[in-house]
Structures are given as structure tokens and as C-alpha cells.
Amino acid sequence: MTRPNLEIVIEDAGLYTIARDSNETLGIIGPIDDRDALMDAVVERWPNVDHIDLPNSN
């Protein structure tokens, strides 16, 4: 299995993570207000993710 591509989306309701693999949506996690909790949920659901680059919050 390849590593999924993760997209972090910031909405009024909170943070969401969308995981895709070769244009197929694997799943969505959210809304979660805390970025660390979101990343913990991502690692639990998709343990083959080694590294995640997050956008800077401004």
C-alpha cells in the first residue's frame, strides 16, 4: 500500500484531514479543534503515514 496524501482543511467547524491515495478518497477525519488531536487520529487511522507537513497558521 502506498502512503496516502493528506490534506488539512480549516473550516469554521474545525480542522479536517482528507486522505487520498491515487485520487481515491480514503477517508475524512474531523471536525477536530486541536491540531495535535487531529494528527493523533490520523496516525491511528492510517499508521503507514510517516511524516506530515502542516501549513503554518497565521
Integer tally of domains: 1
H-E order: EEEH
Structural class: alpha+beta
What radius of gyration results from the CA coordinates?
A: 11 Å
Strand content: 35-45%
Estimate the helix proportion, in percent: 10-25%
Average pLDDT number: 82
Number of helices: 1
User: In angstroms, what separates the terminal alpha carbons?
Assistant: 34 Å
Strand order of the largest sheet: 1-2-3
Spans where pLDDT lies below 50 across 5 or more residues:
none
Shape: globular
The count of strands amounts to 3
The major sheet is characterized as: 3 strands, antiparallel
Supply the key terms.
single chain; 58 residues; alpha+beta; 3-stranded antiparallel β-sheet; 3 strands; globular
